């Protein structure tokens, strides 16, 4: 229930009764009352002065008296200059509390019928997933869950970039230097092994460029004519023409990578409704380019390359097919988008891709529109900032990335070390302890990344993320475990708890207000495509509980009705925390 909406309705009624004007709700201004003033909702009087023909203070008092006399939910009001502060009664908040406590999946919106597709992950099969991919996967997964909480039908998809010059670079380096090495013979995870040869190619290329430069070539010409690069380009042409040897090598090395990806996805708790492969969609893009060429949307240069002229739209010319007939990223994105709309008729298509691709998606939408696809307006690029480490940016080709698997394992190890130092796991089996360490480690990683506004570049600090105090996943997990511990003790002592009409303290009303705002936070997060809103809400709720826990007695409260009410309240907090953190893909433990 939205208190601001209630007050808006009462303001409309008061203005109509007092001044004879039936105002639109949008004309009325309300907001949450600032903490330094008494009240719950503040109404701004200044827009009403032309109607009331009175001062701000007089107008506020007239409207306040009318609402107070005609609404039992309002307990009192005060006017500060041109602001009317209205305070709801305790019985109003008890009624809100009863709704919160009685709804099993509180916060979940009813079905909207809207179909939303969310693409995320989109790895390349020339390297393992790294820290940057982790932010992408966690953001994409949590955005999908957030949109589901908003009642939408959500389809999660992955587009694997399994072809292209970068894939050929790993393949070529493997042919040159691997001596038949496989994941089985090396003991390396498949994606790590292929990534090793992507780095190896870059080293080969550097050596060749230096040799050419020493022979008198300029650096620019050397980079263009390096034998390894020319071989990789030739390999791509052979792949697109269906050369058996090249395609066979490609299938073998990609299969290694897919097995490795699956292990990492499982660790992260990430899954997809459907996976698309660039090797299967780029031809669809080529077909669209051919249609666009025939209709005059695109044009061909003398060297045979195909372009779209976007200069009239304030952009530049965009390459769609190279002179040798091979496609580019834009080509397959055109084909994939069209295929997806044909399959799902989505109302919105969200691409979770880093902000270095802002221009790419601007161009994608524009070209699709030029091809006559009006659904292109439903494309939304969820542009997020990069993840950096204290030592700076990561570079895949130089092998300086933070590997996702190593990071996950390190987080779990740190969680184990931190938990054992706290010394509260004596009565827990080794198996349960290991499950808890994984829960805490992954919770710390996910929360630390998701709590940052997606648009912002973030600095990832593993040690800071695992802290059991402050704005961290483990702090919220520990809060939930503490509540569950109290509820278990109540059950062991056969203490029943149920809703009643006991008066609420000011602190309890503050907590109920916060719980009542949860559905609105879900709507806000969905609208902004920002699970960070939910993350920080969960932290605020955890802080409120911990303050409350230190201020009042719960199980030792002598008044059985008050004790019962308090148990229902903390049970509701646990329920909302579980829902909120579930949207983030974070599991909350029953005990810690």
Structure description:
There is one protein chain. The chain has 592 residues and is an alpha/beta fold. It folds into 3 domains: 3-88, Arginyl tRNA synthetase N-terminal domain (Gyrase A, domain 2), CATH 3.30.1360.70; 117-397, HUPs (Rossmann fold); 404-583, Isoleucyl-tRNA Synthetase, Domain 1 (Orthogonal Bundle). The protein is built from 22 helices and 14 strands. It has helices spanning 3-19, 49-52, 56-70, 90-102, 131-149, 165-177, 183-186, 190-214, 219-225, 227-240, 244-268, 278-295, 329-344, 358-370, 404-422, 430-450, 462-465, 473-492, 506-516, 518-528, 532-551, 560-583; strands spanning 30-32, 41-44, 74-80, 83-88, 115-119, 153-160, 274-277, 299-300, 306-309, 317-321, 348-354, 379-384, 387-388, 458-459. Strands 7-6-5-11-12 form a 5-stranded parallel beta sheet, with helices on both faces. It has a 4-stranded antiparallel beta sheet with strand order 1-2-4-3. Strands 8-9-10 form a 3-stranded antiparallel beta sheet. Strand 9 (306-309) and strand 10 form a beta hairpin. Helix 8 crosses helix 11, helix 15 (404-422) packs across helix 16 (430-450) and helix 18 packs across helix 21 (532-551). Residues 394-399 have low confidence and may be disordered.
């Amino acid at each position: 229930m939205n208190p601001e909406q209630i007050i808006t309705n009462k303001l409309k009624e008061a203005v109509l009764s007092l001044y004879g004007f039936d105002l639109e709700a949008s004309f009325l201004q309300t907001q949450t009352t600032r903490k330094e003033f008494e009240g719950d909702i503040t109404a701004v009087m200044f827009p009403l002065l032309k109607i009331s023909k009175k001062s701000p203070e007089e107008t506020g008092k007239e409207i306040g008296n009318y609402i107070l006399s005609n609404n039992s939910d309002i307990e009192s009001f005060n006017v500060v200059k041109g602001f009317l502060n209205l305070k709801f009664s305790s019985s109003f908040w008890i009624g809100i509390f009863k709704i919160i406590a009685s709804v099993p999946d509180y916060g979940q919106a009813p079905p909207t019928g809207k179909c939303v597709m969310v693409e995320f992950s989109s790895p390349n099969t020339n390297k393992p997933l790294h820290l940057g991919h982790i932010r992408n996967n966690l953001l994409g997964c949590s955005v999908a869950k957030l949109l589901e909480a908003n009642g939408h039908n959500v389809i999660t998809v992955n587009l694997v970039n399994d072809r292209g010059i970068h894939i050929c670079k790993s393949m070529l380096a493997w042919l040159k230097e691997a001596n038949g090495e496989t994941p089985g013979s090396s003991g390396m995870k498949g994606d790590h092994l292929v990534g090793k040869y992507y780095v190896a190619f870059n080293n080969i290329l550097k050596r060749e460029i230096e040799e050419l430069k020493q022979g008198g070539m300029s650096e620019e010409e050397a980079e263009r004519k390096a034998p390894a690069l020319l071989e990789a380009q030739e390999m791509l042409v052979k792949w697109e023409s269906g050369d058996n040897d090249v395609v066979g090598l490609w299938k073998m090395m990609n299969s290694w990578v897919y097995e490795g990806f699956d292990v990492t996805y499982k660790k992260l708790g990430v899954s997809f409704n459907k996976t698309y492969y660039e090797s299967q969609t780029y031809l669809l893009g080529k077909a669209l380019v051919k249609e666009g060429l025939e209709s005059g949307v695109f044009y061909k240069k003398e060297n045979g390359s195909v372009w779209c002229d976007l200069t009239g739209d304030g952009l530049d010319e965009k390459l769609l097919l190279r002179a040798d007939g091979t496609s580019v990223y834009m080509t397959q994105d055109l084909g994939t988008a069209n295929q997806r709309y044909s399959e799902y008729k989505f109302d919105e298509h969200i691409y979770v891709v880093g902000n270095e691709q802002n221009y790419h998606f601007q161009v994608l939408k524009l070209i699709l529109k030029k091809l006559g696809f009006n659904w292109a307006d439903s494309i939304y690029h969820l542009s997020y900032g990069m993840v950096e480490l204290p030592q700076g940016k990561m570079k895949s080709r130089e092998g300086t990335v933070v590997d996702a698997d190593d990071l996950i394992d390190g987080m779990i190890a740190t969680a184990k070390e931190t938990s054992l130092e706290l010394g509260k796991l004596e009565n827990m089996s080794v198996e349960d302890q290991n499950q808890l360490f994984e829960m805490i480690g992954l919770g710390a990683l996910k929360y630390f990344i998701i709590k940052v506004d997606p648009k912002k570049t973030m600095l990832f600090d593993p040690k800071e993320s695992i802290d059991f105090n402050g704005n961290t996943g483990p702090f919220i997990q520990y809060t939930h475990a503490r509540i569950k511990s109290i509820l278990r003790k109540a059950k062991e002592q056969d203490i029943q708890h149920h809703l009643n009409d006991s008066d609420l303290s000011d602190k309890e009303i503050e907590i109920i207000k916060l719980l009542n705002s949860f559905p609105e936070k879900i709507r806000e997060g969905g609208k902004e495509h920002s699970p960070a809103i939910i993350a920080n809400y969960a932290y605020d709720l955890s802080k409120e509980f911990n303050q409350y826990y230190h201020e009042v007695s719960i199980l030792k409260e002598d008044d059985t009705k008050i004790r019962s009410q308090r148990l229902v309240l903390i049970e509701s907090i646990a329920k909302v925390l579980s829902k909120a953190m579930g949207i983030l893909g974070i599991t909350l433990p029953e005990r810690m």
